[in-house]
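It would be a great kindness if you could assist me with a short task in structural biology. The matter concerns a single protein, recorded as an amino acid sequence and a row of backbone structure tokens. Could you please explain, in whatever detail you think fit, how the structure tokens follow from the sequence? Thank you for your consideration; the sequence and its tokens are set out here:
___
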Amino acid sequence: MFGGAPIIYRLFYWVLRLYHHAFFRSVYVVGRSKPDWTKPNMVASNHPNSFLDPVIYADSVVPVMHFLARGDVFKKGFVEWLFVRQFNMIPIYRKEETKNSGQKNKSIFRWVYRLLGEKANIVIYTEGHSVPEKRLRPLKKGTAWMAFGAMDEYGPELDVNIVPMVLNYQHSHKRNQTVMMNHGEPIRAIDYWDLYQTDQTKAVDDLTAELDKRMRPLMVTLDTPEADQLGYTALDIARNDAYQSKPQWVRKPDEAPPSFHAEKAMAKAVNTLYQKNPEEAKQWEEKAKNYRELLLDNKLIDEALSDGQKLLNWEKLLLWIGWPLFLLSRPFTAWPKRLGKGLVEKRKLWGTQWYLSIFYGLEWITFSVLFLLLVTLTFIFLGSVWGWISIPAIIFTSIYGERYSFLAYRSLQNGRWKRFQKKKPTVAKEIEDLRKSIAGLKSSN
């Protein structure tokens, strides 16, 4: 299953799979069966969330992945040993941060060629930079050059595949969200090999253009920064209206969440509006701004206004009977969450590509310290039997506590909205009318 993966990589594979059940509402993996994972694959990905992106890829696609990453952060010593040797990171050097980057990268390319020759799966963030936005930035050409370079080294029979893969975060800066990994149809570099023999630059350009063409349909895209304010508000509404409380184990394989299709349709409507009628788009921007301000001023959230977010009967039952176990989980979940959120906000990282990654890392480290401390104390004071029992018990209780908190938060917000409707019916009606108008944008364009 893990091939020759380092022992630390194998351990973290399972640890992070469990932790994602607590940090995220859901992680969907769509199109997993499209690539042939037994072949040498270069997985070309977008890069919205710096350190968090490889963590999600590593535990959600295939057991062993290698990752091309910014090389100047891997200082020699423990950091290099941990990330390069244990977590399969491959340092790549950019001329913006590193002198003599071209010379340093020659040995890195040989490293990549060798791994592809061994039929490895290598993730490359083909945009070149991490930016938290719902757009695909212009793709760098290194993906194509490396694929052809490996086939130069080992012959065209190596048949390198380039797999388009896109991470769709609902929000670039929020926990408790749904993340979707979307695979596209692989591109076979061999299909461009004859052209590469006569015109290398054109072969690289054509392959890169095809990769861009295959990645774009896999993601929710707002074409211009001007569309962001209206777009994010409209996407929230579309997503919440399409939300389904469907447990992971009852989903069909490769099934995209309904919210993804709703967001795609809404994003298309917003993009069409800005292309055809930018003046009208400004009026919609004003509606979205008023809607957001009314929610903020009255401490409301859009989820509470959506029928798609209403609690199902089994969720209501769980809230009533499950609170004792939730209270038991609080020592393991509350402090890590508060510490993680407090530190990233103190460092003013909100809205950057670092926010969610550092939040995730700090919360996970704090939880791990508490977990190890409690397990150790259990072994010391209660003996080995209770010590071993405490390991799965703490893990289960912590995951349960986070899932319960998702439900409790939705229930509290729904209740707040109902009380607000009774207390301020006129303002509530204004909020509902604005929301209905913005939701209708999807069908009006």
The CA atoms of residues 136 and 216 lie 7 Å apart.
